Structure formats: C-alpha cells, structure tokens
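Q: What would this chain look like folded?
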Amino acid sequence: MLSIRCSNCGKPYPPEGAPDRCVICTGIYDLTELPLIEPSSWKDTAKGIWNYLQVEAFGEAPATMTLGEGLTPLVWGSIESEDGKTSEVGFKCEFLNPTGSFKDRGSAACVQFLISRGIQTVYEDSSGNAGASLAAYAARAGMEAHLYVPASASGVKMEQMKTVDAVVHPIEGSRSAVTEALRRDLKAKTAPTACYASHASMPFNLAGYATLAIELFEQIGRAPGSLVLPAGQGGLLLGVALGFEWLVARGKIERLPQIYGVQARACAPLWAVHSYGAAGLAWVSEGETMAEGIRIKYPLRGDAVLQTVERSGGSFFAVDEEEILEEMKTAARMGLMIEATSAVVFPVLTKHVHVMKQPVVAILTGSGYKSLEKYEAISPD
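A: My prediction, written as structure tokens:
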C-alpha cells in the first residue's frame, strides 16, 4: 500500500475512507515513499502512467484506471534570447494528454485509489483543467462528479466536464470563493461513498506527476540541467521533483535539475515570498490573469514548493499579461498550440535561458485548443 502521513502530526492515512485532510489535525497528507518502478525499455501505451507506477500500491481495484495518459513527446526548438543568441530548449508536450493537460497523470492515480476505497461520487474545485480531467476519469470509473469552477472559466473546459456528464457548479467571484463554496456544500452532503478529490490536497496526484520526471530521464538520457514550468498550487513542481529525487536515490542521476517556477504577476505568492520573504505576501493580490490555471493566492503546499525550488538551486519568476499574450504567438509559430498558463514559461526563457544549466526543458501544461478566443486577440487582421 501507499506510504502516506500527515505533514503536520505524522499520523498515517486511515485504512478506510478517502479524506483530503488529516482526520486528526486537518493537516496535509504527504507521500513518504513513491510507488515508482524501474520501467522497461518497451512501453505499453495502453497502460499510461502505470508503466512507471505500481498499480497494486493504490489498493485493490477491478481494473487499472487509464486513458493512455503520459508518454508525451519532448520536442526541441530554438529560443532567441534578448541578446540575440539562440539556445535549444526541450518542450515537454503535456498538452497532448487525453484531456489536454498534465492533470491526467494525477487524475489516473487519484481515481485508481478512490476506486479501491469504494468512492462513487467525487467533488472538486478547479479553474478548468483539473476539473475537466477528473470528470473524464470519474466517468471512466462510473463515478458521479461535481465540479465547482469560476463562472469566468474557459467555456471549452466547462463543456468538457458537461460532455462526460459531470455536474458543473459555476461560482461567481474569486478562485478562492470557488473552494469556499465547495466546502460549504460538502458539509451538507457528506456520505461514506463521496469525497473531496482535491488535486491540491490529495497526495495521490503527486505520484502521477512524478512519472513525468522518469519520462524526461529516458527521453534525454540524463536529467535536465534546468526545468521551467508554470506554478500555481505547485503540485506538478513537487511531483516532478519527487520523481527526480527518486532517480537520485537510485544513483541514476547526481542531483535535481535547477527548477524555475513561473507565475503570473497578477497572482504570484510563491514569487513574492521567494523574492521578498514573508513580507512579500502583504501585497499579493488575486488579480485577473489570462493564465487562469495558476491563479492561486494561497497554495496549500506553498512551503514545500518554496523549499523544493531552493533545494534545487532554482528560482521563481513573475511575468506580465502582455508578455503572456505575446509569447502565445511565439509558441504558435513553433507549432505549439498552448494555453496562456503554459505560455508563461516563454518570457522567462527569452530573458534567462542563456544562463540556465543545459539541457533546458520547459513543461507545456495545457492545450491552446481550449482557449482559441485568446488566439483571436493575437491574430493579425
């Protein structure tokens, strides 16, 4: 079984049910050991992330939960920095997962566990991609899904949820208000076979994200020197780091890549604390940003994310809205149709790739086909 303990009181995950928070102190549960396996040179695309994870560690279930997630391509391209020099960057195309985002790795792992606990109804709050992903995997498992989303979320993402028969609850107000609405409703609807399948607080998703690190190691033949990725809750960042640390422990690589997390300046708490200490939080807002996937003012695992980046020798960056919009065009010219949340990595690459340790890999997290209206804003007349 999975090795999971509360990061606050140290108590193990209970043998029954599927709580998203510690039942003793309401702390956050963490994986204390990754159920990764040494992959073979031949991959079965029908197994998805289970080429890299021990499915039996997630509990007894009648079938393996997968939609063929993972095994995404690593595409190399040239980035021209501000000084006119060009550098090769590997783009990990996570937008080519089944529902169009990296979240599918986490959803497969989480739903696999929930099946083993007899869960029939899942609740989740999301800016879009996590909800669309969980809805699809829940449908595959025969579960009922309730997704709480900002009323301003991408229409395409909400249609994804509705198409697989999820119940969508649009909530007016901030991203934080969405979480508050879900928790308020859950208090009145709690049942033994229902749970809050939070991609932010549940630890199972991290194991799914860790498989990305193993794939990169296989695709490059070594660890990246630098890894650049969007960071909101920071779950992807943590999961990938856990995967690389697993490789370090087994002598496959010497150290973590330097990890660079990127946030939209309109809502950049991790960048603010990294740059200015705790005092930086005083002026962090939950401002509007087209990078809706990382509009998170209070990352639940924020301390762990900050410590991981510091341990890797990396940093955080914040980028402006006009930069995001312009770099969506840059990515499109390279044939990479990505959403605004993914595009935040490009301004950082343009300004800093020449000083980053090689090879440099950027993770492109979500599909641009979910936000075609934003491309209209950058298309020539």
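The mean pLDDT is 94.
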